[in-house]
Amino acid sequence: MPVYKINYVFKARLWGWTETYYAEYENIRACLTSARELMNFRRHLLGGVNLNKEPRIDSIRVSDIARQRDALVLKIGEFDGYNNNPISPADRPTTCMLVRMESTADYQRTLYLRGQPDTLVQDMIKVDNPFWDAGLQIYGDSLIARRWGILAVTKPDNPTVITSILQLDPNVVTVETALPHGLVAGDEVRVLSTPGIVGLRGNRWVLAAPNATQLRIVSIITGVYRGGGKLYKRTPALKPFTSVQCNSAGTRSTGRPSDGPVGRRRRRRVA
Asked: Is residue 198 scored above 80 in pLDDT?
């Protein structure tokens, strides 16, 4: 099944932020429906009293990671995105809980749940609250039950060895490999090393594969190739959550005015 990227878009006064998740569904509308259902569990973790001030979920965006610009956006009604029964206000949208999400012991990520009730944090330390803790347990169990998870790319044990790198055309690099690469046009590759060459390392798109050992990659390079180098196909795979736990409290000032330019990111966490 296709893998979808789910973004919850939050607003608090003039500020906004997002939370990102991944999941597999048979189609994009089924994913959006599930995301709408899970939104109810997420909003119950928010602080809030005053509808003109407190945080809310503003919209949900679902996109197919394999297809450019294939996305659906659901605008949440003004009163549906709030927590109707909050523990306390969330006067500072930067107040957050650091949640650790795991897919077995091999894959982990951390997520800052922002817009949290102020009474949950004292001197940058999380205060136990049975009501909020139960809400997080329900949210975590719901993520696990729906098999939402981490998008991971595993590096193969034996990447393909590069034998030649040439810039024969503007913006296109011709790469020769020692063995058949098995790639086709449209694949994304990770170039691990390119001795003497600058501008090719990292994630690149395959423009064409003229034969079994030759690739044409979109890039501009400088330098003189000295031999060697490796690459492999990037194949993202979903790793479903197996554990969702709150680690600590802190602040995360990555929000910005919802109609303003993207600014620099700063974050701070105290265990």
From this structure: yes
CA atoms within 13 A on the CB side of 251: 12
Using alpha carbons, select from 95, 139, 101 the residue that is nearest to residue 113: 95
Q: How many Å is the Cα radius of gyration of the chain?
A: 22
Average pLDDT rounded to a whole number, residues 4-22: 89
> What pLDDT was estimated at residue 263?
43
| Structure tokens, 98 | 């650091």
Q: How far apart are CA 216 and CA 190, in angstroms?
A: 14
Domain count, the chain: 2
Residue 211 structural domain? 160-235
Asked if residue 113 and residue 65 are part of one domain, the reply reads yes
CA triple 150-110-9, angle to 5 deg: 80
What is the mean predicted confidence (pLDDT) over 245-256?
71
Does position 257 have pLDDT exceeding 60, yes or no? Answer: no
Q: What share of the chain is helix, strand, coil (3-state, %, to 5)?
A: 15, 45, 40
Q: Are residues 83 and 134 in the same domain?
A: yes
